[in-house]
Amino acid sequence: MQRSLLDFCRSVAAWIRGGLRLWVSALGLIGWLLVLPTVQAAKIGNVSESHWWGQALRFGSLADPSVRYALAGAVLLGLACGLLGAFLVVRQMALVGDALSHAVLPGVALGFLWNASKDPVAIFIGATLAGLLGTLTVSAITRTTRIKEDTALGMVLAGYFSLGMCLVTRLQKLPTGNQSGITSFLFGQAAALKPADLWLMGIVCALVTGIVVVAYKELLLVSFDPVFSRVCGLPARWFDHLLMVLLAFSVVISLQAVGVVLVSAMLITPAATAGLLTDRFHRLLPLSALLGVTAGIMGAFLSFLGSNLPTGPLMVLAASSGFGLAFLFAPRRGIIARWWREKSQSHRIARENTLKAVFHILEEAEFRSDVVSLLQLADRRRITLKISEREARMLVSHQLATMGADEASLTLTPAGWQRACEIVRNHRLWELYLTQAAQIPPDHVHDDAERIEHVLGADAVRELERRLSFAKYDPHGRPIPSLADLRRGGEKAPRPTTVAGYGK
Could you tell me the pTM of the whole model? Predict the structure, then answer.
């Protein structure tokens, strides 16, 4: 018990150190961006160079205050949204983030009405309260009625967003409405970020990072197995509420940069991209944060290259482009990787079926010769002679067989013989297992064995042999290749010469 407590303390300390390093690095970058000397320059998105590379160099110099503010805001919102988005994705709560982002709009308008100005603190408080009220509304609807959560989320999303749009429209008719910049919360305007906005974003981002680091294990358990977390005595409901509060905070600080309409994309897309790249949550979490930060920086950079290009939508497009690349080229879950694996597997199965056919031909001839003609192979496989020649050349290309001088016959190499014995062995062991363990008639097991013979691993084959007491014959009375037959593949003359010597 003392050791487990010590391990827990060490893991918590490691997470705290990692979170502190991440946050100190972000603070250092943001502080450096803010303390750079201020020069008179155009806002982000205004073109003052004749070529795009001139704009790129100007962006890299960080001489413009608007660039520094937009870049710092992109880093902060990408970090906060990436961390929380990972929990939303694994908990299948993507629609909750979308509903919450739309539900905060009435709070934004009411925060502005508090003192008739765009006060970041007042808007933050109003938007957070509106978002939490929207979440409570969804919870109340699902608890007290038979309406499903997705339906309740859709109603709350539409209702709160409509109310917010009505309030924003009324605000535009006030004397200070047109100068308030309140409409920037709809579609985002990263160039309008001010130091006060960045301080608020920094505080929220530090809070989110700190809580995720300190309560990582509890949030992980509640996200993946809420029933077990309640059995363990964890207040799962309170952790759900805590996650919703942090989500509301992150949504509100992201409104100025990407807007109500697109903030849910910054919550979901980086985490979904990370989910295509890894299946381990301790890797998915920092990877999601990194992808969110990268998307924010890329959006700010691209918006600076052209005239009046919107920063928020370009951030979302950058995140979506990253998802598209992962969707296509991810090592394990990408479409191209899956297509290549399926193609390689189909080619491998075709080679193994050809090897099995060669083995059966040799077996019918009682292994008196190790040469098989292509005509025999075509007849056994029920294919044309041209196709059998192509299959023979495929075996030759993989060094599993050699062609005769007349190119009308083939001979298995030691490696080809060994693999042929393995496939036949797998097939006949599985047939015997099905007839004995599942009581399936022997004439009904062939098709299933045809499918399973290509995927049985060495451990599974050894387990089958133990369960079958190292049987020597399959249900049809044919001998099962033994380990001795497999070892003959490495010898100079690997072919059994008599039936009596086969299968021992």
Answer: 0.73
Q: Are 454 and 352 in contact (CB under 8 A)?
A: yes
Is 400 in a helix, a strand, or coil?
Answer: coil
CA atoms within 13 A on the CB side of 450: 9
Residue-by-residue pLDDT tens, the chain, 504 positions: 444 444 544 554 554 455 545 444 444 444 444 444 433 333 454 544 456 676 777 777 777 777 788 888 888 888 988 899 899 888 888 778 778 878 888 888 888 777 766 777 888 888 888 888 888 888 888 888 888 888 888 888 888 888 888 887 877 776 655 545 566 666 666 667 778 778 888 888 899 999 998 888 888 888 888 888 888 888 888 888 888 888 888 888 887 777 777 788 888 999 999 999 998 888 999 999 999 999 988 888 888 787 667 777 888 899 999 999 999 999 888 899 999 999 998 999 999 999 999 999 998 888 888 899 999 999 998 989 999 999 999 999 999 999 988 888 999 998 898 899 989 999 999 998 889 888 888 888 888 888 888 888 888 888 888 888 888 888 888 888 877 767 665 443 344 443 333 443
Q: Could you tell me if 102 and 157 are in contact, meaning their C-beta atoms sit under 8 angstroms apart? A: yes
Complete edge-to-edge strand list for the sheet that includes strand 409-412: 371-373, 409-412, 401-403
Boundaries of CATH 1.10.10.10 in the chain?
341-490
Helices vs strands, H then E, count in the chain: 21, 3
Spell out a b/e string for 295-327, using b for 16 or more CB atoms within 10 Å of the CB, else e.
Answer: bbbbbbbbbbbeeebbbbbbbbbbbbebbeebb
* Long-range contacts of the stretch 446-453 (C-beta < 8 A, 24+): 452/426, 453/352, 453/423, 453/426, 453/427
Has domain 341-490 been given CATH number 3.20.20.140?
no
What is the spatial distance between Cα 263 and Cα 253, in angstroms, rounded to a whole number?
10
Rounded to whole angstroms, the Cα distance separating 231 from 207 reads 28
Residue 96 · residue 88 · CB < 8 Å? yes
CA 71, distance to chain mean position in Å, is 26
Residue pair 185/253 in contact (Cβ under 8 Å)? The answer is: no
Q: Are 14 and 63 in contact (CB under 8 A)?
A: no
Range list of H helices, 215-334: 216-224, 226-231, 236-277, 281-305, 311-329
Q: CATH 3.30.2010.10: does it fit domain 28-333? A: no
Most distant CA pair in the chain, distance: 104
**Cα distances (angstroms) measured from residue 88 to each of 231, 262, 264, 331:** 23, 16, 11, 24
Specify the domain boundaries for CATH 1.10.3470.10 within the chain. Answer: 28-333
308 vs 311: CA distance, rounded Å: 9
